[in-house]
Design a protein that fits this description.
This is Cyclic nucleotide-binding domain protein. This protein is of the alpha+beta class. It contains seven helices and eight strands; from the N terminus they run αααααββββββββαα.
Length: 234
């Protein structure tokens, strides 16, 4: 009798875990691709499966066993993904400087779609008036920004280049070229388009990240112009 009550209690616990995890998913408290959601469902299926020993039901047993297997496969997949999420030094700088709004797994997908390249002096990254075909992140070296024939800025380590137009291939507002040998992360507009086709939410997040970088650049540029105006007025 006590054993039966214990097994019935396990069944109720399993039902509560199923309902709780589903409610958490619907209310936005838990992500469907998170380890927590998978663990809750694994625990729920094990509890319900164990409770069936008091009153065996083959159909329910098949469902719960399948749920256990699927959950274990999902947890293994998440573990393997987590192992791939390690960033090297340059990638970590990139993540901390510009990609902190992304989940680690999304940042990893983004970086995997690009490549690290060495850039020589004189190499152009964008051309004024021409479509932006790639995004660059400098981890060393230097680049100059030319508007017409006038140099308007110098960019160094940590600079993001091309974020204004790469998602839409909009015309570049300035020409950017390397003035000191540089190491950079590069991702093409084609690669970003493919990434967006596979993961639209990631592309929306990247749009937000790029917008933040663009706003920071504009703020810095405006501050520089105000400073120049004040110096000229003195």
């Amino acid at each position: 009798m006590q054993g039966s009550l214990f097994l019935d209690g396990l069944g109720l616990l399993g039902a509560a875990l199923y309902l709780g995890s589903y409610a958490g998913l619907q209310f936005g408290v838990i992500r469907g691709n998170s380890a927590l959601y998978t663990i809750l469902n694994l625990a729920a299926s094990l509890a319900v499966l164990t409770s069936l020993f008091s009153q065996w039901n083959l159909s329910s047993a098949v469902i719960q066993t399948s749920w256990v297997v699927i959950s274990l496969v999902g947890l293994t997949r998440l573990w393997l993904l987590q192992r791939r999420l390690r960033f090297d030094d340059a990638e970590q700088v990139f993540y901390e400087t510009h990609l902190g709004a992304l989940r680690h797994i999304d940042a990893r997908r983004f970086m995997d779609a690009g490549e690290w390249v060495d850039l020589a002096v004189g190499e152009g990254l964008t051309t004024e008036g021409a479509p932006v075909e790639a995004l660059f992140f400098l981890v060393g070296g230097e680049a100059r920004v030319m508007a017409g024939s006038q140099e308007v800025a110098r960019l160094g380590e940590g600079a993001l280049i091309g974020e204004f137009g790469v998602l839409t291939r909009a015309p570049a507002s300035a020409t950017v070229e390397i003035t000191r040998p540089a190491r950079a992360f590069r991702i093409t507009a084609d690669a970003l388009e493919t990434l967006g086709d596979r993961n639209g939410e990631l592309l929306r997040q990247l749009s937000f990240v790029f917008a933040l970088s663009g706003q920071a650049k504009l703020a810095t540029s405006n501050a520089r112009l105000r400073g120049s105006s004040l110096d000229a007025a003195r």
